[in-house]
Amino acid sequence: MSNSPPEEVTVTEDDPDWAELERELVGRRYLDAEATAAAAGVEREVSIRLWRAIGFPDAPEGELLFGDLDVEMLRSASGLVTEGLIGFDTLLALARATGQAQSRAAESQVKAVTESVANAGPGADPLLYARMAIPGLERFITYTWRRHMLDAMSRELSATAEGLTTELAVGFADMVGFTALSQQASEIELSDVVGRFEDLAYDIVAAGGGRVVKMIGDEVFFVAESPRAGAEIALSLASTYASDDRLPDIRVGLSVGPVLPRAGDYLGPAVNLASRLVNLARPATVLVSEQLAEALGDQPDYEFRRLRTRNLKGIGRVPTIVLRRREA
Q1: d(Cα 77, Cα 59) in Å, to the nearest integer?
Q2: Dist. CA 230–CA 208, nearest whole Å
Q3: pTM over 0.85
Q4: pLDDT tens digits for 59-116?
Q5: Which domains does the chain have, with CATH numbers?
């Protein structure tokens, strides 16, 4: 079997196939930015700020980059504000969060398609593969959004009944020595490591009843409904990565306390503390806050080793405690 790279297929925006793909995704582009705002009935400044918030640079003046889909989006998004459903600043925050998430999703999906093209061998047409995959990918995105929307609404209604904040176990786990690894490994090797890191993190957190809030390069931020669920996830993460020869060890910081949900993220002292504890933890070790240790103190499955108190900038003096599974 040859190890030579597959024959490259050059694609330019002048290709008829590219024009067809473009029409399938965004429709005919016949409006410049100013005409798009006028057609949608919104102020030019509103369209500019929304476009930037989604994640795109300003469109050159007079360039025909937009069409009916863009007009519909502008009209619909601004309608949320004019109908009093959300504020404009909230709309911009939503646009930023959605744009970041969809940008990552699109990059991942394009990567998956191009890998299939490469595996298909010389002469495979990336545009044909993309056009065949897009309908299924679009349905998958819509499905996952609907499911997450229902889940988020359920959590939000529960939080509203209890107050603005909700108490969760929050944890951060990051790979040890990732900076050195990124300087030594090839792009393919680094991609494989990060991909496996993410796969395991999502599997372990979900299996433990928690949720991945976000991946930050070599770090995963997760939450769980109870201290015990958080502890089980943290210990499973540490032990699973330690036993995987293809991945570096990880370290975990875990805390518990009231958190404030905001645009798919969480804020609060417990989050800040967990993010600082992970930097103090040793490889394959879970470091927990005193509050979390107290919440688990009467459970026979765990044992704790108290380390010296550390002075954390912006937080103060904090006891550091190693969480371990008690041996039978």
Answers
A1: 19
A2: 8
A3: no
A4: 888 999 999 999 999 999 999 999 999 999 889 888 888 888 888 888 888 888 888 8
A5: 16-159 (no CATH), 164-325 (3.30.70.1230)
